[in-house]
Amino acid sequence: xxxxxxxxxxxxxxxxxxxxxxxxxxxxxxxxxxxxxxxxxxxxxxxxxxxxxxxxxxxxxxxxxxxxxxxxxxxxxxxxxxxxxxxxxxxxxxxxxxxxxxxxxxxxxxxxxxxxxxxxxxxxxxxxxxxxxxxxxxxxxxxxxxxxxxxxxxxxxxxxxxxxxxxxxxxxxxxxxxxxxxxxxxxxxxxxxxxxxxxxxxxxxxxxxxxxxxxxxxxxxxxxxxxxxxxxxxxxxxxxxxxxxxxxxxxxxxxxxxxxxxxxxxxxxxxxxxxxxxxxxxxxxxxxxxxxxxxxxxxxxxxxxxxxxxxxxxxxxxxxxxxxxxxxxxxxxxxxxxxxxxxxxxxxxxxxxxxxxxxxxxxxxxxxxxxxxxxxxxxxxxxxxxxxxxxxxxxxxxxxxxxxxxxxxxxxxxxxxx
Length: 418
Prior knowledge:
A hairpin with a 2-residue loop joins β4 (104-105) and β5. The chain is of the alpha+beta class and 418 residues long. It contains 17 helices and nine strands. It folds into two domains: 6-117 and 279-349, D-Maltodextrin-Binding Protein, domain 2 (3-Layer(aba) Sandwich); 119-278 and 354-414, Periplasmic binding protein-like II (D-Maltodextrin-Binding Protein, domain 2, 3-Layer(aba) Sandwich), CATH 3.40.190.10. The longest helix is centred in the C-terminal third of the chain and has 18 residues, at 396-413. Pfam families: SBP_bac_1. It comes from Malikia spinosa.
């Protein structure tokens, strides 16, 4: 008698790399005729809510979940995720150390990276050349402000710099956390007290508001990744500091009017290089509630393997492979040729350390977030205050004070201190 196929329910996010994984899933099904894949594809915010509810209530709706570096260490520690088991062929040592560490707790991996990213400077080399400025591989924020002032030309539709301003813990606060880190700041001190009224936060946020008011596009407080990507591709941004994953889009002539004019450097630094560029991975994890552990392990191993990357390259070309996960991808000459951002992206990822991302010692893991359950609410609230300061609806000092009060309330409520 033929065995009934095991159905794996996979929750994932609706972005390009994941949609490609669904198309290529038939290769996995052909190799594993006893396993059927069922996809639940959701917008990022909805995905987070659904998988968080499911895992916290042990709902068992999903056998594989797409989660990030924020959830993985929290859920792994709580025993909500299966430890990922890999075989020799998988070659876990080929995973970039920053990715492996960010998805591990006490040396055990609780998710595997499907694609990874850091943040970096993407700039218009033609505009920098025109004003006679050579951008360093590791510029300072002072250099960035100086260049922004020289290339800012709103009459001709070019703004000196574009940066996120839309509120959200993963939107403006991802960027602003790195700006605060490099100014020598942190979210919480070793007693878990929020630090929003400290000098580094004041310096960083004042610098940011002033920079965008002077040399940014109008309406910056409504811009996040997608809005700025559209502006950049239209030729309206002189510079942009954001996710390395953007590099492949802005250098693609099919999407970008300035594809041949872009160049890349490391995220700018100020007081310290620590925490200047973020670290993220969209990753595949197996909830401990699933009854289909073996099939799920098989699938996450396949989707994050060297063979999968080769399959994408063969199907769509090397410029389309998921990046930010494996040393072997960056060592591949065909990938290097197809992706002119590859070297800068790898340096950025390798330099990010989620276990040591702030100048003063911090009690949390994470570069552009603190991997504690309370951070989502705190990041959302602070993000709204920062966006209001950028829009000129409040002062920077008042916004930081309001953020400090909100963060303190959450931390007391959760019992971090009395």
